[in-house]
Amino acid sequence: MKMLIDWMDDRVGIRGMLHEALYERVPGGARWRYVWGSTLVFTFLLQVITGFMLWSAYSPSTRTAWESVYFIQHEMFLGSIIRGLHHYAAQAMVVLMAIHLVQVVIDGAYKAPREVNFWLGIVLMMIVLGLSLTGYLLPWDQKGYYATQVTTNIMSVTPIVGAEVQTLAQGGNEYGHLTLTRFFAMHAGLLPASLVAFLALHIMVFRRHGLTVHDEKHAPDTTFWPDQVLKDAVACLAVLTAVLALAVLRPAELSAPADPAVKFDAARPEWYFLFLFRFLRFQAVEALGLTFGAIIVPGVIMGIIAVMPITARLLGNFGHFLNRAFIWLMAAGVVALTVLAAWEDANDSDHQAALAESHRDAKRAIELASGPDRIPVDGAVSLLRRDPFTQGPRLFAQHCSSCHRWNGHDGRGSLIRDAVADGAIGEAPYTLPVAADLGNFGSRDWMNGIVTDYSEHFRWIQNAGWYQDAVQRSADGEEVEFLNPAGSEMADWTSGMTESLLAEENSGNLKALIEFLASEAGHAQQEFDPALVELGRQLAIDGNWAGDLEGTSCAGCHDTIGEPFPETPDDSNASGYPTMAGYGSAAWLKDFIRHPDADRHYGSRNRMPAYGSDQLTDADLDLLVRWMTGDYSPTEVADYPNQLARLNAGLAGGTTTEAPAAAAAEE
User: Fold this and answer.
1) Burial 164-190 (b: 16+ CB within 10 A, else e)
2) Distance between CA 378 and CA 476 in Å, rounded?
3) In a 10 Å sphere around its CB, with 0-12 CB exposed, 13-18 middle and 19+ buried, how is residue 384 labelled?
4) Considering the entire predicted model, what is its pTM?
5) Distance CA 35, CA 31 (A)
6) Cα 610 to the chain's mean position, in Å?
7) Quick one: DSSP state of residue 71?
């Protein structure tokens, strides 16, 4: 080994370089407060190493970015750990940089003759923040896509050159493929190269002037090696341990593939930018405009920090006191705004619902990508676009939730509230449903509700404006035909026969009838007993009940019992009552949504508007119906929680608002 070192020293002077690098004098002895610069350099090196590993599997295009990150996260050996290290090291770098800045100002390490080094540090800080912003977009998922759009929109409000800067960053007027490639070029090329160059200058100038030491008598003088190196190494090991633990215990998130057609209400910047996000939401700041809040104020703050060496030089100790007071005040403000933003989000039911949906979509996208069909040629974004489990709730919320609910919510997990009046305090009341709750549609529970308690099952209809108007007109002596859960023949039959239906002698018959009706709907997530189905079909046709129900059959009013729903339905044989052919099945549902006023359904008694293909395309109708009937690939993703109890509790407490008739008609 000595021969090798002698040879290297003779050729390149390695001993002299090592001595220059390692035996720098440390006045007052090695201290823990000096480790922050070394941990920053270590974290950057960790970023470079893991970044190269990720680069080897990453493909920067709108059709391959999410797919390659999915491969890294879920397929590549140790890929999840490597990505987690890169992800959390980036966050650690921001935190360490903030600590380092505060320490430099407190210790006065920015004062002459160290002004240039301080300014180089500010440049390095801007580069690090630039790396954070550009890296956020690279997975090309919903979270990064929408958060980065906010960033580029902020660029556009920069005075004079805003539009040009935004166009340059986006790669044109549209936000898409060129945006991704340019952000990747900045993140993996321009910014790291700039950081290396400025870091070399920063270290060179630092070595020229040495450490800023307040108490040189704190301990005997020492050298960088080995005392300070040991403390730096322990600190770097602590950083590595922290980010590795996070990478293992909480893998880096990959949300659903970026889809411009889907609004992402849960979008937030990374937690270390939450303070700015919250600052921009203050009403006074909003009133002054985005340019003021996002450009002018941060620009003024950075300007104050940049002139700190000049302030201290002109005002002496008082200037240093002002600088320290400002940096502490700024740190306290950043922490307070971050905590406030996190607390508000945690207590914002709409945001939490959007967040839950984003996690649901992310898990479903990964589940589909891992399934037997894998990722299609046209990209991962089509996985969710073609998935009834994902798109059904959105279509229900868009087209149906103004009247109906799905287990109490709008289909996407949120309870619907009335618009908040100006000056109102507190949450708005819940808006009353005005049509049947369609949760568990076609299931045994759904069919049991119709047969045993028709009035309760469809009770929400009575909140509709058209229903109340029809009741009033009937009370005034006008003959009005309308769907009435409180006074129809079906309501009268179920209320009059409830005792017999639920009697012990008919328990097996009722179970068989429900099994038959549920089998007609053919919910894909259910299995049926063929013997029970056949018994139920005979009961529906022949009425072989016991006791008071003997001879009572569905065929007394309804036709085509047990037959499949026809491919080309018509009303030539309509009996005036809803057809039982494939009742609740996908074919029946599609026809009902397109023609709810047809005589084969409820005729003129129904007030549900018909949905033509111009309002709901055939593809969207198919996705909606397949979701309602459970016709989608199996999933382990939890569905939205049932909100009926919460809705009913709100109703009982009087926290509801009746939906106006106009809203009911729009659906």
Assistant:
1) ebbeebbbeeebebebbebbbebbbee
2) 61
3) buried
4) 0.85
5) 8
6) 33
7) H
Q: Please give the class, per CATH, of domain 25-267.
A: mainly alpha
Q: Kindly give, in sequence order, each residue whose CB lies less than 8 Å from that of residue 340, ignoring residues fewer than 6 positions away.
A: 278
**Residue with tokens 């009741």, as numbered in its chain:** 471
Q: What is the pLDDT of residue 84?
A: 97
| Cβ 362 vs Cβ 256: under 8 Å | yes
Nearest to 40 by CA among 167, 128, 143: 128
More confident residue, 120 or 269: 120
- First CA to last CA distance, the chain: 83
Q: What is the DSSP string of 80-135?
A: HHHHHHHHHHHHHHHHHHHHHHHHHHHHTTTSTT-HHHHHHHHHHHHHHHHHHHHH
Instruction: Please name the residues in contact with 412: beta carbons below 8 A apart, sequence gap of 6 or more.
Output: 353, 357, 393, 394, 396, 397, 640
The pLDDT tens digits for 413-422 are 888 887 765 4
Looking at residue 226, its amino acid is P
Sign of CA dihedral 473, 477, 483, 486: positive
CA atoms of 417 and 424, how far apart (whole Å): 13
Please, where in the chain does CATH 1.20.810.10 lie?
A: 25-267
The rounded distance, in Å, linking the Cα atoms of 172 and 153 is 13
pLDDT tens digits for range 308-349: 999 999 999 999 999 999 999 999 999 999 999 999 999 988
- For residues 534 and 542, give the distance between their C-alpha atoms in angstroms, rounded to a whole number: 12
pLDDT in tens, 129-176: 999 999 999 999 999 999 888 888 888 888 888 889 899 988 888 888
Which residues contact residue 41 at a Cβ distance below 8 angstroms, ignoring those fewer than 6 apart? Answer: 199
Mean pLDDT of 67-88: 96
d(CA 531, CA 443) in angstroms, rounded, equals: 18
List Cα–Cα distances, 590 to 394, 621, 635, 665, in angstroms: 17, 7, 24, 20
Q: What's 454-509 look like in SS3?
A: HHHHCHHHHHCHHHHHHHHHHHCCCCCCCCCCCCCHHHHHHHHHHHHHCCHHHHHH
